[in-house]
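Progress report, Aim 2. The chain analyzed during this reporting quarter is listed below.
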Amino acid sequence: MPPNLLTTARAMGNTARYINPNVTVRPMKIGVQFDGLNSRQKLYAYHMSRAAWLGARIIFPQVSPESSVIFDLIMELFRSCNGRWDELVRDIHDIPDVGEQLECFRAYAAVFLTNVGNYFGNPLLEHCLDAMLSPLPGNLGFPSDVAQSGYYPGDTRITSEEIKMEKRIHVYEKTCTGESETYEVLLASVETDPKPNPLRTDADVVLIRGDHSEVLQKISDCLADASEFVDNPTQRKYIDEYRQHFISGDLEMHKKSQRTWVKDLKPAVEVAFGFVEPYRDPYGTRAEFEGIVSIVDSEATRELTTLVRDSKKFISTLPWVENQQDRGGGRNGPFEKDLPELPDFTAIHALAYCSSIIFLGVNLPNLTSFSNDDVRQTAGFKNVMIANRNQPWDPNAPWSPRDAPFVDTSEVLTFLQHQYFASYLHITIHELFGHGTGKLLAEESPGRYNFNIENPPTSPLTGKPIQTWYKPGQTWTAVFGNIATSMEECRAECVGSYLITEPALLEIFLHGFIYNDYLGVGVGGLRALENYIVEDKKWGQAHDRGHFAMLRVLLAESDGFMTLDIANIVLVNKTSKPILMQGNLFLEGDVVTFKEYEPTVDGVIQSWAERNV
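Predicted structure tokens for the chain:
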């Protein structure tokens, strides 16, 4: 192996000690579902999966300046030894624990690849190379001495106040020339412009198209290849609209693609692409790229279809709907949509899920996406459950109280036995009724309201007519800024806990686990503290902020139902989350084959190396 790579490997081995080498790898199995596709659908899935994985090249620089370099380094190390990792240290005799360092490095690499970047909540920053050994900046956040963000690149540090000037989902860079300052809004697109386009009359804020141009061109080419194997014209239409959006950067084309996509009901191969949610932007508006390709599970979808069929009955029990039907608005009152068309809800097995977070459930277009607030209100949405994301309890598997460190030892076994199904149902409700309900009262255009402005609805909170609503052009994300995502996720989580007590809903799934669900809310709130950034007094993940808020309410208002033993809430209880491993598709002539890998850290690294992104 070249000496420079050997030096790098040794440096990374030292730094990687901060990663638990005993990380658990969980495979996302999908072989049976893939075999059920016909030859055209397999070709469609191949090209779409290729497009999804190429998106990693966009996510890496969105995370941090060094993530792309670290990825290339891991791939080069793998190829230099052809995956035979012991060869990396075969000639090293002056380091007694070199084998341990190699083991730590491989675990580090697997976690990095699964996370699509080098931040795992609130860790030590692993920089490349000199900065890899530096403890600061140590988390994602507004650029400072202790934090950084790939959404605000460049050598000149931009402040949070300056960022607020342009509430857009694009990357935002500050440059200085002499005494003048220019703010560059970088728009992701294939196309570029001869010169920047001023966004203000004084030209201090300019729009520059062409961010991620090369990668988006490759993604667009893969989408074009996939369009040759679609199952219906609707798929061909939204693929073309995806491509137009990626090529031009026009957000209206993305909205158009989503309006078309929600009409493609229960396809054999389900997909979702684009800059969807602001997972790691500290300001909470600039969206991270993700690509999802999956196969529908027909049997599991039947239960979800029953739930959707009865959804109007459950929606009528929500606090802002119950007893509101005669107070203006439609059949569900002024604060809820009429839902003339029921949303699609399917169980899927993820084939290629390229994202920093693999959720158990997804609701798209998501309300927290800056560009899609109005799409959900006017065109509808889809819900999907990722059936191969988690695994049911194995009664023959060994277990210990460490598997549920925040649960009283007397309840650990019961908690583990019901955790999968309780979580599955909770997130099912979270996606369908949490994200899928509620109406934004708005002046949709000058003088045109979606409620009776002459007799405004009565707020269920104050008992008085509402006094505020969304003005033309305003969106949920733009109004609430960096707390919008957390508020929406907390609302959806609360709906999950509220409706899980409905007997008619529980009968659909034939599982009784209300107590376990609420216990899970408490555990989720404690685990959320892992993503609280003490230095900045900020949350690193929107869902966790919502989970912790719910825990605080349960502790304060549950009349002793939930208690907290502070003596047991220590860092030693921080457990390593399993990392998820996905397989790959390969094309030989016109035949597509699926390859699974060993559920080990080496298998994770090999799977990424063979994606050739």
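The longest helix spans residues 412-434. Confidence is low (pLDDT under 50) at residues 1-9, 13-17, 121-128, 367-371. These observations will guide the mutagenesis work planned for the next reporting period.
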